[in-house]
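Protocol step 4 of 6: structure prediction from sequence.
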Amino acid sequence: MALAVCLLFDRRSDRILRGLWDRLEDLGVPTLKSHTHGRHVPHLSLAVLREWQHDEVRKAVESLPDDGPVKLHFDALGSFRRGRAWLVPAVSADVLQRQERAVSALNETGADLHRHYQPGLWVPHCTIAPRVPLVVLPILAAAVYDVLPLETTADHAALIDSSTGRLWPLTHLP
């Protein structure tokens, strides 16, 4: 069980990313669309918490300044251990600052931040497929590179419980 602070995409970007999920599912590659509860949304997580007090976390994130929409340019495919495939964004100083501010505010609540989201260790990514066997990687790569490069805009944010897919919209973009 985890709670994530997520940047969410505008309608156009969300539609393109969900279209990629659909294409991959049609090709037999399981994506976030069919993973666990099936309520996943395209996103970029700024922080993931393993333990937290929901009201305190929400208050901390809502107290951060509204930095407005953020443009993200995706032009590569990445993979973590155990086969998690993701889109690699070019990362601006603005995105790094947003992530560091969010982590700082969350740490003040006493929440337990997942170690991969520590500033300096965080690898920004937009997950597309959580468990890709090596044999399927060429199929996934071909489909991904059909849509890249991809210019996107994150224009809203939410807290998302990864175990249920429950989403709490935030009033602004931290």
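Step 5 (inspection) to follow. The two ends are 23 Å apart (CA to CA).
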